[in-house]
Structures are given as structure tokens and as C-alpha cells.
Write a structure and sequence with these properties.
Layout: H1 3-7, E1 10-15, E2 19-24, E3 28-34, E4 37-40, E5 46-49, H2 51-54, E6 64-67, E7 70-71, E8 74-75, H3 78-92, E9 102-107, H4 113-125, E10 130-135, H5 136-143, E11 154-159, E12 164-170, E13 173-180, H6 184-199, E14 201-202, H7 205-215, E15 226-233, E16 239-245, H8 246-270, H9 273-282, E17 284-287, H10 296-304, E18 308-310, H11 317-329, H12 338-341
Parallel strand pairs: 1-9, 9-10, 11-17, 17-18
Antiparallel strand pairs: 1-2, 2-3, 4-5, 4-6, 7-8, 11-12, 12-13, 14-15, 15-16
Organism: uncultured spirochete
Subcellular location: Cytoplasm
Pfam families: MreB_Mbl
């Protein structure tokens, strides 16, 4: 380890479609903001970033555009992404920092080399001294406390905003991995389409997200929850209120949820028998914001016959794991196990 590595801060970034999280070694999660940037039309001048910019989505005047520079877990607008990362890093570190940080960024395995290079270039231009990109599922496994250095099979399923990544990890490496471009955003889109098609009501992304979080579910529940929403009548064009229940939202989500479940089954089917036996004993760990959908662990366990564990801080796993990557890979000591805490 060089002198720069000793004094340079290590940071992990979960550059998500919905939210960007930054973890700093020794400090924990220091930033959690929506991956949204508001720019001035014509000049492309940054008006707002993060939470402030998200509040402007669909509410901006004609001279301001609020947009998400990432789609399906990858960079769709490199210039805006670079500005967003630079803004977030400068929020975390002072501009006059002598030692530039080493940065590890979690990315989906389904991205192309061009998309990966866009992440690296944007992070370097944002002020990093060294940039390393790693698979989101590997970062999530480290962040969830899975002992990835052990010669045993561990399965992680990270459901982010734009992608879902499922991996079997052993001895610091991914033995089997699969990634699909379905995640929390797809859940929101499914709700929007369902409400439009069934009730002729047009709702926005934020209303769909609230429905998903508050009454969304993947498994039937004993009590039926209801929620009132407001939108635009697709026929009259006038504002209208409407009450939706949790049964209807579950029906709207099932196609997307079933695709994720089938992908988990396929990944288990490709897993070597000895590692598969480990997974049956230890369970599948779920991480990512999409894993918080009520009833999802129960549904996956039922469909696969394998125990399912929700990580302690599912939304923070990728950022935490990215921040701890250098430390974990440079020593043969696993982090504290999520399984030990659950006596599995």
C-alpha cells in the first residue's frame, strides 16, 4: 500500500437510477439523494441536484428541465451525470482536499464496456484519484455482511431502481451471475399503466412510488389496505380523486415480480450442486430498494423452497460494500455474517 493509499479517503458510490448513495470509510453513509438534476434549458446550467431537483419533476417552468441522467442502472446522459457526481462528491469532501479519494462504484453486470467507461470517465472528471467499478451484487454482498471470502456458496439478489442482479459468490468471486433490466422503476411504470388502463386516470411517477411503498405487496395479506390518489382523468382532462386498494396494486406488480422470481430460479439452476447446497442451508439475501416491497421475501421463499433473508439496510448495501471493497479484497477476513446474527 502506497502513501497515497494510506491518506487518501476511500469512498463507495451506489450510482443508482433512483438514488445516489455515498459511503465514506470511517463515517458510514454520508449522502443519500435522488439521482435527479434540474438544468436550465439552452444554457444547460445546473439549477438543482438531488432532493431539490426531484421535487421539480413534472413541476418545472418551460425554461427548466428536471431529468434523471441514469436509466436502467446505466448512464444515459454522461455530461449531466458527471456534473451530478461532481456536485455530490464536493458535498462530501471540501474542494481543497489534498488527497483525492479512491472511489469504488457499483454497476450492473449487464452494462456494456462503453457504459462502464462512461461511469469511470465521469467519476475521474468529478475529482477521483483512482476509480474501480465492481458488480452491484458483489458490493451488495459485502455491504450485507456476507462472508464472501469463505469457500462456500452465498446468493445475493440486489433489486435496484433500474436493474435486478442475482449472483452466487464464493471465495471473493462471482461463480454465477445474472442481471435483468427490471427494478423499482418498472414497478412504478406497471402501476401507472394499470391505473391508466383500468380507471382512465393518469398519475405521475411520485404518486406511483407512494402507492408501491405504502400499499404495494407481492403476497396476499389478511388485511386489504386502501389509499386515495389524485390524477388527471384521461377522458375529460380534469383532476380527479380515486381510491385504490392493495389487491389491485399487487395485480399490477405481478408480471414484473414474476420475472424476477423466474430469474432467481434460473440462477439457482445454473449453480454447481455443492454451492447450491450451501445456499439451501444459508438462504438467499435480498438487498436494494426493490427488496422492500412487502411480501417479496415470502413469495421468493415459497417459489424457490429456499429461505430468504432481507438485508439489515437493503438500500445502503451497495454503497457500503463499494466503500469497503479495497479493505475486504486486501485481507482474507470476511465481514461479520448476516447469517450469524440470524442463527442460520
Amino acid at each position: 500500500m502506497g502513501i497515497l493509499d494510506m491518506f487518501s479517503p476511500d469512498i463507495g458510490i451506489d450510482l443508482g437510477t433512483c438514488n445516489t448513495l455515498i459511503y465514506v470509510k470511517g463515517k458510514g453513509i454520508v449522502l443519500n439523494e435522488p439521482s435527479v438534476v434540474a438544468v436550465e434549458r439552452g444554457t444547460n446550467r445546473i439549477v438543482a441536484v438531488g432532493t431539490e431537483a426531484k421535487n421539480m419533476l413534472s413541476r418545472t417552468p418551460t425554461d427548466i428541465i428536471a431529468k434523471r441522467p441514469l436509466r436502467d442502472g446505466v448512464i444515459a446522459d454522461p455530461d449531466t451525470t458527471e456534473k451530478m457526481i461532481k456536485y455530490f462528491i464536493q458535498r462530501v469532501f471540501p474542494k481543497n482536499l489534498f488527497f483525492k479519494p479512491r472511489v469504488v462504484v457499483g454497476v450492473p453486470t449487464c452494462i456494456t464496456k462503453v457504459e462502464e467507461n462512461a461511469v469511470i470517465d465521469s467519476t475521474y472528471k468529478a475529482g477521483a484519484r483512482q476509480v474501480k467499478v465492481i458488480a452491484e451484487s458483489l458490493a451488495a454482498a459485502i455491504g450485507a455482511g456476507i462472508p464472501i471470502t469463505e469457500p462456500a456458496g452465498h446468493m445475493i439478489c440486489d433489486i435496484g431502481g433500474g436493474t435486478t442482479e442475482i449472483s452466487v459468490i464464493s471465495l471473493k468471486g462471482m461463480v454465477v451471475t445474472s442481471a435483468i433490466r427490471i427494478g423499482g422503476d418498472e414497478f412504478d411504470d406497471a402501476i401507472i399503466k394499470h391505473i391508466r388502463n383500468i380507471h382512465n386516470l393518469i398519475i405521475g411517477d411520485q404518486t406511483a412510488e407512494r402507492l408501491k411503498i405504502e400499499i404495494g405487496n407481492a403476497s396476499p395479506e389478511r388485511t386489504i389496505e386502501k389509499m386515495e390518489i389524485k390524477g388527471t382523468d384521461a377522458i375529460t382532462g380534469l383532476p380527479r380523486r380515486f381510491e385504490v386498494d392493495s389487491v389491485e396494486i399487487r395485480e399490477a406488480l405481478m408480471d414484473s415480480v414474476n420475472i424476477i422470481v423466474e430469474e432467481i430460479k434460473k440462477t439457482l439452476g445454473k449453480t454447481p450442486p455443492e454451492l447450491a447446497a450451501d445456499i439451501v442451508e444459508r438462504g438467499i439475501v435480498l438487498s436494494g430498494g426493490g427488496a422492500l416491497l412487502k411480501g417479496l421475501p415470502k413469495l421468493i421463499a415459497k417459489e424457490t423452497g429456499v429461505p430468504v433473508i432481507l438485508a439489515e439496510k437493503p438500500m445502503e448495501c451497495v454503497a457500503i460494500g463499494a466503500g469497503k471493497y479495497f479493505e475486504i479484497m486486501q485481507r482474507n477476513i470476511g465481514s461479520s455474517s448476516v447469517y450469524e446474527s440470524l442463527n442460520l
